[in-house]
Design a protein that fits this description.
Helix 3 packs across helix 4. The longest helix has 24 residues. The relative contact order is 0.14. The protein is mainly alpha-helical. It holds the Pfam family Sigma70_r4.
Length: 88
């Protein structure tokens, strides 16, 4: 059960990071299609009406923004680490 709890913590942190990252609607859509609906970047591009390269750019830029949130949390002793939750 501890593993399930930790997995839930990671997902909650990811959800919070997505909310705090200030992603554009298009970045959110690309992330949702590729990572949550499990489409390829080509399929996501077709769904969004854009080229695969644009999907790739949206995801890359979104990943940087999300990483910034995790770096902030790590430098302030917040969020989840591989060793478990910090400060919470």
């Amino acid at each position: 059960r501890l593993g399930e709890y930790e997995a839930a913590e990671v997902l909650i942190d990811l959800h919070n990071a997505l909310e705090l990252a200030g992603l554009t609607d298009r970045q959110c859509e690309a992330i949702r299609l590729v990572y949550f609906e499990d489409l390829t970047q080509v399929e996501a591009g077709k769904r969004m009406g854009i080229a695969k390269q644009n999907v790739e750019a949206y995801i890359s830029n979104a990943a940087r923004k999300i990483a910034d949130i995790y770096y902030y949390w790590a430098s302030h002793g917040e969020g989840y680490t591989m060793g478990g939750r910090i400060n919470g």
